[in-house]
Write a structure and sequence with these properties.
Blueprint (H helix, E strand, L loop, with lengths): L7 H11 L22 E7 L7 E6 L10 H9 L20 H4 L9 H8 L8
């Protein structure tokens, strides 16, 4: 939900930038690499049916943005700073799709998933 006066396209683009390469200050290292290779992109915006000024924004991130095998890095990038973003009144992560190529970089639990499920007594659902 964007703040009053902020167009949904601007809010979506700001979320994509803030959760990838965007920053509110000048960083001297910005000139060392091409930010286009790493920036997130808001590629679709749909209004929420029956809700005024609420939108679903679809954001895609290049795999090069994330450290291989690091769930922490991925989640920090996607949801780190952006939930306190001033251009938005509200923000909620609805869905996250991780490409198979990236999931293959995760080593997984050292003793196997069944041992972890047994320790936690959690079955039939994702462990996050």
């Amino acid at each position: 939900t964007p703040q009053p006066g902020v167009p949904p396209e601007e809010a979506g683009a700001a979320v994509a930038a803030e959760s990838s390469t965007g920053t509110w200050t000048t960083v001297w290292t910005d000139g060392l690499t091409s930010l286009d290779r790493y920036k997130g992109r808001c590629y679709n915006i749909e209004p929420v049916a029956g809700e005024e000024n609420q939108y679903i924004c679809y954001v895609a991130y290049p795999l090069d943005l994330f450290e291989e095998g690091s769930v922490t890095n991925m989640f920090t990038s996607i949801v780190g700073n952006v939930f306190g973003f001033k251009a938005l009144r509200a923000l909620r992560l609805e869905d996250l799709r991780i490409p198979t190529a990236y999931t293959k970089t995760f080593q997984g639990p050292p003793h196997g998933i069944q041992v972890e499920r047994d320790k936690l007594n959690k079955y039939g659902r994702p462990l996050l």
